[in-house]
Amino acid sequence: MFRLDTHDNCLQPVQKVSFGELKLLERRHLQEWLAKHPNALTNDSVDDELLIIQKEFSGFTDTNERLDLLALDKRGNLVIIENKLDDSGRDVVWQALKYAGYCSSLSKAQIVSIYQDFINKQHDEPKKDAAEALADFLERDSLDEVVLNTAQSQRVILVAAKFRKEVTNTALWLMGFGLRVQCFCITPYKMQNDILLDIRQIIPPPEAEEYMISISEKEREEQTSAGENIKRYSIRKKFWTELLPKLQKRGCALYANVSPSTDHWLAAGSGISGMHYSLIFGNKFIRVEFYFTRSSAATNSFAFQWMHERKDTIEQVFGQPLDWQALEGKKACRIQCEKGIVQGFSEENWPEMQDWLCENIIKLEKAISPHIVELKKALQTQPHEVEDDG
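Below the sequence we write its predicted structure tokens.
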């Protein structure tokens, strides 16, 4: 690493040091840094965001072992984070695998309890309900619609200043079996009185990670034939398969080129990239919405506010008030109409639910579509679009 001296137009080497030389400790320092800034261990992807739910977790039966950090990712997977200082040692992979095995049996209720305990210990932060905080992190209305810690979904992150070859080789080998293992090399540098940290993912190489994960996921999907997720996917696909012809019969062209999905949502384009109409199907609610999900939060906020200025006109055409959700602190925004239901996965309730969705998505498109062309023109004048196109 070098410091650029613009005055003399030259590079000045920055001194590489060890944590031992700096008298920094694994638990008191490295662990606390990562607990406060877990997204230092991500690749700037929304799906990679981490939420720390416990430090020094020891809730294992018949053992006093403690894992350094326990986290949750955006897909509801538990992430085991093991930290070492200047050397990974030979046994760190085995240690992390033991913890992953221990954690694989944790239920949703146990995860909520673990996180609530962690929250209650944070004396410098306001107390909050763990279930609500987890749902908010996962961008869901309720934890009821989320599956946490599914079978063989656990991830492992190893952090050290130096990794032995037996560790990196084993990590790569394990990825072939569908276990997501990442090794982050954290190197300290000293520049006068400042300490700089270079945190780099070395296993798998970031440019190859997506491909390796997709191959592992494909193989895992092919081997999976049962389980709660498969049942839920089947229910959703059947529901959408029945709904789509009803929309076409009512003259709604929005979903003419959309196929049934296993997701709880079904999206259709609006004419503006990253802004779409969505049908939402859950066991406890159904919803229609217009979703702003461009890559730039500023663009979404601008478009949402632009639409909100036309709120009265839009709601007059829709025929009733809509729920305008700016979703503060999140990248996306939405305009929605929701209906609570009981036992949405019961097929005897589907005809009434499907009629409601058909009626209201047609009304929502009718209310919003007259404004799409002008909104698109307004977006083209915004500097945020430069960021989106990059």
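The first strand starts at residue 2 and ends at 5.
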